[in-house]
Amino acid sequence: MRTPRSIIAESWAITKKGGPIRRWGFASTLLETLLNTKLFGYQAWFAYSYFVRGDPIGFFAIESALFESLPFWTFLTIISIFCLLLLIEFFFPHMALGAIIGLAAKIHRQEEPQGGLVLALYNFFPIFVVRELFFLASIPTVTTLTSLILRYGALKGFTITMLFILFAFCLILRFFASFAEEAIVITKVGPFTAIGRSFKLIISYLGHVMFLILLMIVITLRIFINAAMFFLAPASAIGIGVFLTLFLPTALSYSIATILGFIILGVLSYFLAYLHIFKQTVWTLTFLELNRRKDLDVIEENPPSPSTSVTPENKTAK
């Protein structure tokens, strides 16, 4: 029986190896960070307009401003590229998760880390189903829904309270379904069977409190770094752009600031990818360890057939 310390040590060793798993982790982290940065940047603008100015912006305020200030075809091109990026940023992390789990399991089994694209495509839909079943357990989703309620909702206080109650409930359910993605990729079961398996494993081995606490610390650390990144990268880019306007043309200043903003996001995502891969590998190796153990509700895995069972008559004859 492996200890949590050995699982964590091997997970970090796999994370440092690099190769395909690092590439999938970096791409997933970068796209997820770009999506969340846009969402939080927009919500920060809305919060400023709502709480400070007292004049909340509309949901399509950015699109309306671009439509009024740009030629039609330029506006259409920008919106098309923006929507395409949103689709990629939303769907690609679900694909990358299947590749990261599968490649980590292969490295653990001393196999060549190949087949990342097949793992990503083959497991995309069931992983997507599991993730979206608990969509209310996502902080960006709850933040977006809260801003919509503040704009257009009725009974705002009651509705937001119910939203946060559902958020807490879904967060608990999502915790117990933490092994669902690993079950999908490794054991090739459907999303609902995988969720059931995850519930059973976590309830059965909930006594590994220190190990789970360590995992929660890693996840919390990642959340805090993500939150810092959402505000640090845009704020740095805006600050540089404003500074450059003091002695450079405005268009050139903002162009340089935009490029620097993407570079900052890329560098931060590179380091954040280590945490993402490490956390996911810990869950993967933990699932492999717990799944090979006998279920706690199973008393006898291979009960004798009636023809070979020991009856009182047989016992007397012996």
Structure in words:
The chain is an all-alpha fold. It has 13 helices and no strands. Helix 2 crosses helix 4 and helix 2 packs across helix 11. The protein is globular and about 80 Å long.
Ranges where pLDDT stays below 50 over 5 or more residues in a row are none
Mean pLDDT: 80
3D shape: globular
Total number of beta strands:
0
- Strand % is under 5%
Order of helices and strands: HHHHHHHHHHHHH
Q: What structural class should be given to the helix and strand makeup? A: mainly alpha
Number of helices: 13
- Separation of the first and last Cα atoms: 39 Å
Please estimate the helix content: over 70%
Radius of gyration: 25 Å
Question: Major beta sheet, specifics?
Answer: none
Task: Please tag this protein with its features.
13 helices; globular; 318 residues; mainly alpha
